[in-house]
TrEMBL record:
Keywords: Membrane, Phenylpropanoid metabolism, Transmembrane, Transmembrane helix. Residues 135-548 form the AMP-dependent synthetase/ligase domain. The lineage of its organism: Eukaryota, Viridiplantae, Streptophyta, Embryophyta, Tracheophyta. GO terms for cellular component: endoplasmic reticulum; membrane. GO terms for biological process: phenylpropanoid metabolic process. This is AMP-dependent synthetase/ligase domain-containing protein. Pfam families: AMP-binding. Pathway: Phytoalexin biosynthesis; 3,4',5-trihydroxystilbene biosynthesis; 3,4',5-trihydroxystilbene from trans-4-coumarate: step 1/2. The chain crosses the membrane at residues 32-53. It comes from the Eukaryota. One of its GO terms (molecular function) is long-chain fatty acid-CoA ligase activity. It comes from Lactuca saligna. The keyword Transmembrane applies.
Length: 727
């Protein structure tokens, strides 16, 4: 049994990502060649620096604008004085956009899935069995073929007996059939409810009952979970499951009609039903958030919302075309991945479906000798969440440190010179200098993710500056860091490919405005100098219709101005840089006042502490009745165990190691060091910590699918531990 199924947290470990193929093992054949390379590496950049030295130019990316609504400081993208709403005339809904793109790109390949050659199981040292897959090449279908399948599925839903005036839910991991089912629903103007595959029973029941779903589409592996809660589901009548190789399916569930996905397609092919097309104001998706507090809320997205975000991103990502290849592996139930795949479909690009557990050659579920998804697909575009990029960085650095000698020195030199280039001291940041270092050092590292990536999208959580720089240097690609929420259909801000800065999320997307509103209580004012600060409020075409069946929460977070424009109050605190780029600096809900009046921003401190090599996850806790804060830390197991081995610390199991005073002291010293480097005040550093031996995963309900902390759930689960830390 594989206990790591379906979790982003269980992506390949740092070591697994880095050592696939031993990227540095062939860098230097002998000491002589290494020495020559080092001399060459020093001389050439010095020559290049004299040729390309130049001044850094500041590019204006956003401009102030006067708009309606609450008073504040508002910015728009410099690219367009009129908000972008559609990618081209007539593409006002998801159904229209899909059909027009399929006809425009009918002969280009569209969706690809790897063929399963063999499924095997290996037994670990602890006796547990782990699934290993031998996967073949990607098998592709064209835009024309996928359009035909979507039409067949849409007709099949009607012939199956689904009432088009009721909702359909998709409860599955990301795969090609997810996207086909999604688009098929829109041809009948059916609202789709999206639910994370990792959602717990209570949240699943709540989501399906609240939206009165009558047809549930799910992965065959999740049928058992659905069956176990069937007695609690009040409105479900039909269940459609995605077939999987070698997976036995029981169709005897309650009194539901259970059908295979392919059967529904055949029904529609044999008896086509006329399409019922939506208009842009119709609700396309009710997307349930993963619920960082309490039960998840369903966000209502109109067709116009989703199309506007895709249209805006199309203007920002450079050179999108049918020649691009995108690797899809993040949850489609998350707005970040859904928006990304919609953009790829709009551009006519190819989408190859993989998984977080088969991503690289040494991923958890890849059988030895089999190539990972990235190596086979060789994507040009990739979306990621910060946690995965952090592990790429950690894995590569550990591998470099393990080599030692001239290899490590050469890597450090190459990294330093490329970093100088990217940060703007040299004009040739992506030119001759890049080619040189790629050839002798970074080519092997680039191959971890296929070797052809030209642009990366990152979202879901803040990306650490050092990780962003590391990817810039070693993978050799710019990162577009996105900022958005489910409530804004992911469309808010997006850093541009030619912006070398870190820690910012770019200017507003051209589909909307970003306004800062003063928050007097927190001391963040739009009159602040040199940069205006305040709560981030987003307005425009991407702002959604509100929370399903929750008028109170909708009225709290959404406002409509005198012109009819909708604004969403994010609760995030930001500031605008002079070039129009937004930086997120705080969050209202994360600010706690200590006993003596000091304010602590939990998220800010956690981001700083997370840079410790010992930290896999951390939650800071501050109590208004105490003068200090404490922290729960999930250590990186291999790093902590290596420290114990090097320092002669004995232990019987990992839990015992986490409880040892020496281990706690070592981690706390590291937290103190990185905290001081980040210029945290003394009261912001945790006075006491507890090491938690168990990882926090979406399945455990302690983090969201995007790996954000579920603070209330963590506080409830570890209430006794927190009390002891304050004792």
């Amino acid at each position: 049994m594989d206990d790591s199924e379906g979790s982003l947290v269980n992506t390949p470990t740092a070591e697994e990502i880095a050592v696939g193929g031993g990227f540095l093992s062939s860098l230097m054949e002998d000491k002589y060649s290494a020495a020559v390379a080092v001399i060459f590496a020093i001389a050439v950049p010095l020559v290049l620096s004299s040729m390309f030295l130049g001044k850094k130019k500041v590019k204006q990316r956003g401009v102030p604008v006067e708009v309606g609504g609450e008073a504040g400081f508002t910015m728009r993208n410099v690219r367009s004085s009129k908000l972008v709403e559609v990618p081209w005339e007539g593409a006002t809904t998801m159904a229209a956009l899909f059909e027009q793109s399929c006809k425009k790109h009918s002969h280009y390949r569209f969706l690809g899935t790897r063929k399963l050659v063999e499924r095997d199981f290996v037994t670990g040292n602890d006796g547990r069995k782990f699934e290993k897959l031998h996967l073949g090449e990607f098998q592709w279908e064209t835009y024309g073929q996928i359009f035909e399948r979507v039409c067949n599925f849409a007709s099949g839903l009607i012939r199956l007996g689904h009432d088009p005036d009721t909702r359909i839910a998709i409860f599955s991991d990301t795969r090609a059939e997810w996207f086909i089912a999604f688009e098929g629903c829109f041809r009948q103007n059916i609202t789709v409810v999206t639910i994370y595959a990792s959602l717990g029973d209570d949240a699943l029941i709540h989501s399906l009952n609240e939206t009165a779903v009558s047809t549930l589409i799910c992965d065959s592996k999740l049928l058992k979970k659905v069956a176990s809660v069937s007695s609690s589901l009040k409105t479900v009548k039909n269940v459609i499951y995605f077939e999987s190789d070698n997976t036995e399916v029981s169709t005897n569930i309650s009194d539901w009609k259970v059908s295979a996905f392919s059967e529904v397609e055949k029904l529609g092919q044999a008896s086509p039903a006329p399409a019922r097309f939506p208009i842009k104001k119709d609700v396309a998706v009710i997307m349930y958030t993963s619920g960082s507090t309490g039960l998840p809320k369903g966000v209502m997205m109109t067709h116009g919302n989703v199309v506007a975000t895709a249209a805006a991103v199309m203007t920002v990502v450079p050179g999108l075309s049918p020649s691009d290849v995108y690797l899809a592996y993040l949850p489609l139930a998350h707005i970040f991945e859904l928006a990304a795949e919609t953009v790829m479909m709009t551009a006519g690009a190819s989408i190859g479906y993989g998984s977080a557990l088969t991503l690289t050659d040494s991923s958890n579920k890849i059988k030895k000798g089999t190539k990972g998804d990235a190596s086979v697909l060789k994507p040009t575009l990739l979306a990621s969440v910060p946690a995965i990029l952090d592990r790429v960085r950690d894995g590569v650095l550990k591998n470099v440190e393990g080599k030692g000698g001239l290899t490590t020195k050469l890597f450090n030199l190459a990294y330093k010179r490329r970093l100088t280039s990217i940060e703007g001291s040299w004009l040739g940041a992506w030119g001759v200098e890049k080619v040189f270092w790629d050839a002798i050092v970074f080519k092997k590292i680039r191959s971890i993710l296929g070797g052809d990536i030209r642009f990366m999208l990152c979202g879901g959580a803040p990306l650490a500056a050092d990780t962003q720089r590391f990817i810039n240097v070693c993978i050799g690609t710019p990162i577009g860091q996105g900022y958005g929420l489910t409530e804004t259909c992911a469309g808010a801000a997006f850093s541009e490919f030619d912006d070398p800065s870190v820690g910012r999320v770019g200017p507003p997307l051209p589909c909307g405005y970003i306004k800062l509103v003063s928050w007097d209580e927190g001391g963040y004012l739009t009159s602040d100098k040199p940069m205006p600060r305040g709560e981030v409020v987003i307005g425009g075409h991407s702002v959604t219709a509100g929370y399903f069946n929750n008028e109170e929460k909708t009225n709290e977070a959404y406002k409509v101005d005198e012109t009819g424009m909708r604004w969403f109050y994010t609760g995030d605190i930001g500031r605008f840089h002079p070039d129009g780029c937004l930086e997120i600096i705080d969050r209202k809900k994360d600010i706690v006042k200590l006993q003596h009046g000091e304010y602590i921003s939990l998220g800010k401190v956690e981001a700083a502490l997370a840079s410790s090599k010992y930290v896999e996850n951390v939650m800071l806790h501050a109590d208004p009745f105490h003068s200090y804060c404490v922290a729960l830390v999930v250590p990186a197991p291999q790093v902590l165990e290596q420290w114990a081995k090097s320092n002669g610390v004995s232990y019987s199991d990992y839990a015992e190691l986490c409880a040892k005073k020496e281990a706690v002291s070592e981690v706390q010293q590291s937290l103190s060091k990185v905290g001081k480097e980040a210029k945290l005040d003394k009261f912001e550093l945790p006075a006491k910590i507890k090491l938690m031996p168990e990882a926090w995963t979406p399945e455990s309900g302690l983090v969201t699918a995007a790996l954000k902390l579920k603070r209330e759930q963590l506080k409830a689960k570890f209430k006794d531990d927190l009390q002891k830390l304050y004792g």
